[in-house]
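Lecture 7 notes: from sequence to structure.

We start with a single chain of 159 residues. Read the sequence below before looking at the structure.
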Amino acid sequence: MNHFKNIQSILVVCTGNICRSPMGEGVLRYKLEDAGLSHIHVDSAGTSGWDRQSPTSEAIEVCSEIGVDISSQRSAPISKQMIQASDLIVAMEKYHLREMIKSCDAPDEKLFLLGEFDAQNPGLEIQDPYGMPLSYYRNILQIIYHCVDGLIERIKNNN
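Now the structure, written as tokens:
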């Protein structure tokens, strides 16, 4: 079964949903629109259960540097409903995949590491920049950006 065909919704997951997944959601939306795939719904969530928190000021700042506004996003804890509603779920670390399987019965075939779509380093786990300097956030954003390129390429090649 091809899980990259006819995708209507993508969920991006990290731990607190205040750094990596909001950056991933913002970049993915931005790049999907660029690729003529703006019909694909993108959302994000966290495995730790934070609710209604703004992204960190660093995440907002580094995204704004590349023209992506994530300031209105708010964190949400992952739920079975979110998993069921998503065609594809991309997480930052293997730990997040395990958590979704354990706590939400997430179907394995929907789950991917975002880093699997990194052309240079497939299977990469994207580290948490929380509490780190802006330069570290920029680094993480660059990794996310390249992975999103690979993900969109995969989607385009399967439609």
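DSSP finds five helices and four strands in the chain. Keep this in mind for problem set 3.
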